[in-house]
Design a protein that fits this description.
Elements (H helix, E strand, L loop, with lengths): L4 H8 L3 H4 L14 H17 L1 H14 L6 H9 L10 H12 L6 E5 L2 H20 L2 H14 L2 E9 L8 E7 L4 E3 L13 E9 H7 L4 H5 L18 H12 L5 E20 L4 E5 L1 H8 L2 E6 L4 E4 L2 H14 L2 E6 L6 E5 L14 E7 H6 L3 E17 L2 E8 L6 E5 L11 H4 L1 H21 L3 E3 L7 H8 L17 E3 L6 H18 L16 H13 L2 H25 L4 E6 L5 E6 L1 E4 L5 E5 L7 E5 L9 H13 L5 H6 L6 H86 L5 H9 L1
Helix pairs in contact: 6-8, 16-18
Length: 760
């Protein structure tokens, strides 16, 4: 069955609500869902009354932490006694230290896939959650949550989809929300309020902020009832810090109107359909209306000469749609004569140069209903836990939606949980110790003030009182006369404070530190610090163990938060998107999700890093947020380095050098150069050895040459001597012949001479 392309485009176009994937139920402010609005308002009033006492304590604890630690009644009594309401606020720095310790490092999340195929994408999911954390300024939001945890006993983190972020493409974000804006079912007993029937968020905001948050509902907002006041209770003082800010805002913007927004989150059982696409192995849970829309979505069947493939992924279908329009649904491949790469050509293949044989593909466009009828898409009805969201403002309904999550997106971080939604806090628990310190210090200062003013007891009439007061307070020597007959003045000195009082203040300080688990040495103080470096490191290490319980509260909250973010991420990020992450070392990392890949013939193969499918578990790495004693850590790794168990590069990674990658790169270059120098030195050493060998060989050669020269010289001398001898012999023979001739000529021969000649 063919599908009309114009209808296809209409189906592809979605509203903001459809884009977010919520079940349609938007009511544009009429009275159809008036009961839902009234139900939210009545429920809010009930929950507000139930938590009123806890909310008042929260406000008072916040005031107390911020230095308002004397009630007006106490201040008046002190002033009547001449004492100053001194505040030695030890809670605030300890809370700030605890926040700094628990958020010393950015939390590291690790995702795991439940199936083997999902595990390949799990690392991508871990990086993606880091992206969500960065986009949400997660570090700052987490600090606020921890602050509420210590002060009021309860902090909240909230995950949501922001449809207006990233140029309207949307982003998953998280933030800390004010505990006084959250109203929980008082019957809840679970630490994370999973058993609550409802959780509500109610806050009064100005119209400008409301329209910025809900621009598509501007008309409904402006036509709703106005409200200037919020629901925050009063504390010990006239107004809380939040109320003071609101009053200042009102004074600065007198024409600005305010509205109360109510968000009601309700856990419901809803009929869903578990949909499984046998062609793409994709599975999801859809409502009845979502299933109808899903089955109306288009898909392509690509029929080739030897194979057939079905493409149902919306992103891949969208990519093929342009190809379908350009080719008329039939194309073949031709080889580019310049590049040698195959290119798509409209129409069936024909004989000719460059045509790839058997490359004709016929594109058939249909809707998924056909695959459902053929049994290639399966849909089974199931019951699923879902969260329904009802948002109203000033008695009018904005919208109703069913969120794609089974647990509330509001994640609490409870301090001292008492099996109810109203936990205790450290500030309220240890408030008496702080008040005791203030009272002691106020008494000490008052005693010091009175001690500087000398008291005189004088007999009435013995001295001029006015003159005495004037002269006594004047600097320098003063002579004051008095009538001794009427009596002698007596100097009344102050009674010294007992040493036990100072001891009690010190003990109260230590008790407060013990209660919070934050000792002075952890705050940079040197009170009681060991004299040795290793002793100080050990104390700091043991002190951090007291934070283990707080660390567990933090990490469990982050795990629950991540669990709720996963379906929001999978639902929103369905198209190809590139993320650029900042690594801890400061380097950038690029991540691409849902990337479509094609084969050499231009046909869609699959999606790389497809996060829309699969089931994942994501948890924060234990201890990743806590600080590590860099000195102790460096000493530990130095010992490993000395033992030869790690190299210099691994040792450098454990330092706090800012440009670690740069240092490692330069270290690598230096190491390479050192290796080259070492190789050159080895080569030079070899050359030196060769040179010495050649020198020896040359010396031997020179000796052989001299010997040969000497032999030649000797041979020449011998030859010359031989020739000289021969010449001498010839000359002697000639002389004898001459002598013999001369004798013959004389006519007389001497036989003896002849014989002599013969002998010669």
């Amino acid at each position: 069955m063919a599908y009309d392309n114009n209808k296809l485009k209409d189906k592809m176009a979605t509203s903001v609500n459809d884009y977010l994937g919520y079940e349609a139920g938007v009511n544009q402010g009429n009275e159809v869902d008036k009961e839902e609005v009234l139900y939210s308002e009545e429920l809010l009033e009930k929950y507000d009354q139930e938590r009123d006492l806890w909310a008042t304590k929260f406000v008072e604890a916040n005031e107390f932490r911020n230095g308002m630690q004397w009630t007006p009644k106490q201040v008046k009594a002190l002033e009547e006694r001449g004492q100053a309401p001194i505040v030695i606020n030890r809670m605030h720095p300890m809370i700030e230290t605890a926040k700094a310790m628990l958020t010393s490092k950015r939390p590291q999340f690790r995702a795991t896939g439940r199936d083997d195929s999902d595990r390949k994408v799990a690392k991508v999911f871990s990086d993606l959650f880091q992206w969500v954390w960065e986009q949400s300024s997660g570090d700052n939001e987490l600090k606020q949550c921890i602050d509420d945890y210590y002060v009021g006993g309860l902090g909240y983190m909230f995950c949501y989809q922001d449809p207006h972020a990233d140029m309207g493409k949307g982003e998953v974000k998280m933030k800390a929300i004010h505990p006084l804006d959250v109203y929980v079912d008082p019957n809840s007993r679970d630490r994370y309020f999973k058993d609550a029937a409802h959780i509500m968020i109610a806050k009064t905001i100005p119209d400008s902020e409301a329209i910025k948050t809900y621009p598509e509902y501007k008309d409904i907002i402006l036509s709703s009832s106005k409200k200037k006041t919020d629901r925050y209770p009063n504390g010990q003082f006239s107004a809380t810090l939040e109320q003071q800010m609101m009053e200042n805002y009102d004074r600065a913007n007198s024409d600005e109107d305010f509205r109360e927004f109510i968000e009601r989150y309700t856990k419901i059982k809803t009929e869903m359909y578990h949909v499984y696409d046998t062609t793409s192995k994709h599975e999801c849970n859809l409502s009845a209306s979502e299933l109808d829309d899903y089955l109306e979505k288009p898909y392509f069947t690509l029929v080739g000469m030897h194979d057939e493939s079905i493409i149902t992924d919306p992103q891949q279908v969208e990519a093929l749609e342009e190809q379908y329009e350009a080719t008329g649904g039939v194309y073949h491949m031709m080889q580019d004569p310049q590049t040698g790469q195959p290119t798509i050509m409209a129409g069936e293949e024909h004989s000719g140069p460059g045509v790839v044989p058997n490359s004709t593909v016929v594109m058939e466009l249909n809707i998924k209903q056909k695959l459902y009828d053929e049994g290639k898409i399966l849909a089974n009805k199931i019951l699923c836990d879902r969260i329904e969201l009802v948002v109203s403002v000033g008695g009018k309904l904005l919208y109703r939606r069913v969120l794609p999550i089974s647990d509330y997106p509001i994640v609490p971080m409870a301090n001292i949980h008492n099996r109810n939604p109203y936990p205790e806090s450290d500030v309220r628990l240890y408030r008496p110790l702080q008040e005791y310190i203030n009272k002691i210090r106020s008494l000490i200062i008052a005693h010091a003030s009175t001690s500087t003013n000398t008291k005189l007891l004088i007999p009435r009439g013995s001295v001029n009182k006015k003159q005495l007061e004037m002269e006594w307070g004047r600097a320098g020597t003063a002579v004051i006369e008095f009538d001794a007959e009427l009596g002698t003045p007596i100097v009344a000195g102050p009674v010294p404070l007992p040493n036990e009082l100072y001891k009690n203040e010190s003990e109260a300080k230590h008790d407060l530190e013990y209660g919070f688990g934050i000792y002075e040495i952890m705050q940079g103080g040197n009170d009681g610090a060991p004299s040795t470096y290793r002793g100080t490191v050990a104390i700091d290490e043991y002190g951090q163990r007291r934070m283990k319980s707080r660390q567990d509260d933090l990490e469990n909250m982050l795990n629950e938060l991540a669990k709720r973010c996963i379906p929001l991420i999978q639902q929103l990020y369905t198209t190809e998107k590139i993320f650029r992450l900042l690594e801890p070392a400061g380097t950038e990392k690029e991540l691409t999700i849902n990337q479509i890949t094609y084969d050499t013939f231009g046909q869609v193969v699959h999606k790389v890093n497809d996060i829309t499918t699969g089931t994942y578990d994501i948890k924060v790495v234990t201890g990743s947020t806590l600080p590590s004693n860099r000195f102790a850590q460096f000493d530990y790794y130095m010992e490993l380095f000395k033992a030869g168990l790690i190299d210099q590069i691994e040792l450098l990674k454990k330092t706090e050098v800012v440009d670690v990658d740069g240092v490692l790169q330069r270290h690598g270059i230096m190491q390479k150069l050192q290796n080259q120098v070492q190789q050159q030195e080895e080569a030079i050493k070899d050359l030196k050895g060769d040179l010495q060998t050649r020198d020896r060989e040359l010396a031997h050669a020179l000796k052989r040459v001299e010997l040969e020269k000497f032999k030649t010289k000797m041979n020449n001398t011998s030859n010359r001597n031989e020739k000289a001898g021969q010449l001498y012999e010839e000359r002697l023979k000639d002389k004898l012949k001459d002598a013999d001739k001369e004798l013959s000529d004389q006519g007389g021969q001497d036989t003896n001479a002849g014989s002599l000649i013969d002998q010669l």
